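Q&A log
Question type: sequence-to-structure
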Amino acid sequence: MPLSEIAQALIRRGVITRDAGLEAEQRKKLYGGGLDTALLELRATDEETLTSHLAELIGIPLVPARLLAALPDPAAKQWIDPATAQKVGAAPIARHKDAVDVWVRPEHDHDALLAWSEKRAVLVEPFLVCEVRFRALLHTLYGLPVPPRYLALLAKLVGVINARKVAGDGDGLAMRTPTPVVVGVDPIDTFVAAARLGDATARKSALRHLACRLGDSRVIDLRRAFERKARDKDPTVATTALQALTHLRDKNAVPAVIEMLDVGDSMVAAAAQNTLVNLTCEDLGRKPKRWLEWWNDMGSRSRIEWLLEGLAHKSPELRLLASNELYEVCGEYFGYHYDLPEREREEARQRWIAWWQNRDAGAQPKGR
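Response status: OK
Response body:
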């Protein structure tokens, strides 16, 4: 995998090794997020060293360490709406007359930020922070939840107690905007329509909602439609369909996805492998035979059981993947963290298994 210009620059400066850069790029491709997030998760360097060099490379001043814990101006969220903040990668923190101080993540859209400031005749003063700090600021400003992956990383940077405060385990939960429900409209039909016709963000959100309704005939039809599209001769259509199957999280898609490993197009095969990794919490490469053998052994078990097996995987990335999704299902980590010593991980995994064995049958999402 080719290295980005930023990764190459960090290697030349001696901030990270080439191996760390390659691993971080692969992790970014597999799990999303910024390169800085991947490097911090891999512990390839520390936050202060990484962000100070990124600030020099990007040409934006670094947020002073003493201000990292500072609260934003209570009126700040009125200056930039949450959708723009997320899209551009910039969030307001303070205002001085006609200038707005904003925190930006390393991979922000600088041109879009300038266009925004010019349109409103406002001077913007950007300060660089790592992506996980930016996510925390979005929560503080707009009540947007911090995804488990970033919460785990934040705990490493600021401590578990402070990370939980940022996540809003207490009163902060009330800040989250509930999903609106339109009376008289079947939500499944609404989500199916969004999964087919919405933009990328809307499709992903809709598919995650439908993942809890996998037994519904309309969702089954949708999954089969994506499976057919995954066989399309156009690689773009095929990879988009495979990405949709990743978000839908239906174990029944596995056999169809395995077939896509052998289509001859490297981009489609890579997308199929990524979908299988996310569905199974296993990585058997691109050999269909190995995956079929795995399916014959594990296909009769539930995806929750696959995830529980993933907690003990030798790959820390797959352990993280499994723990994040299980947290989404049950709302608990049971003391588990993907990079704990093996004995402590296994003790926590057994608590998760006990939860699964003693769960209320009615609380488990259908189709899991």
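Response note: DSSP finds 19 helices and three strands in the chain.
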